[in-house]
Amino acid sequence: MANPRQRRKSRSSSYKPVSQSRRAKKNLKKVPPIRGPKLLQEAWDKQKTVRQNYANLGLVLSLDPITPGGTEKHLEPSSQETISSTSSSTTNQNEVAPAKFGRIVRDDTGNVIGFELDDNEEPNGGGNNEMEVLNDDSESRERWINLSTNLPNHDNQHLIEDLSAIAAPMTGTNTLSVPISGVGARHVSAGELKYLRQLVQKHGSNVAAMARDRRLNPEQRTVGQLRRTLKKAGFEIHGTE
């Protein structure tokens, strides 16, 4: 049973239910694949995954060398596979016994006629265990070092140059105009410029009068603050008063 409020809404001429078709059209509104420069939006392929697009742009999706879900393996040509298979078979055939300490047996003329091995020596000494630990450490380091080498070849040098031109403000000497300290140049906002322009129109170069004006200087900035702000905004103030 409907409550009185629902009945009034159904009888009211001003109440109109929300059109589900309009809401569906709003949800189907197309949005750009990524929020970024136009160059990146054009280079982004909707048919590929995020990982594949990052690889095509020469980027790494994650700094973790072991990413969840695994990565795609790039298959090499069959000729290299055959060469590697033949080389592995030859190495298996040419395998020698593990290295041990022994004594070389020579004849009277000095020619080697044989060797004697110490049977009491363990085939796997303590040195081998240390080498295994070193190999494990080197493999873990290689996973971190070879992050860039695992990426496929990409030919987007022109895209990188265009993005660098957009991101880096260039000067006449083709050098970055960003200071070493990391703090960029201070730009005066539109509201602050209007605030200063009213003070200059009324008081001219008299910064002390600007500081005493409570109506146009409600923030009660001091003479030094106003002088520095006017200088950064580009106003030429002559004199100390």
Automatic annotation (TrEMBL):
One of its GO terms (cellular component) is nucleolus. Its main location: nucleus. Residues 1-11 have a biased composition (Basic residues). Residues 12-21, 78-95 have a biased composition (Low complexity). The keyword Lipid biosynthesis does not apply. It comes from the Eukaryota. Residues 1-35, 68-99 are annotated as: Disordered. Pfam families: Nop16. GO terms for biological process: ribosomal large subunit biogenesis. Keywords: Nucleus. It is found in: Nucleus, Nucleolus. Belongs to the NOP16 family. Involved in the biogenesis of the 60S ribosomal subunit. PANTHER family: HSPC111 PROTEIN-RELATED, NUCLEOLAR PROTEIN 16. This is Nucleolar protein 16.
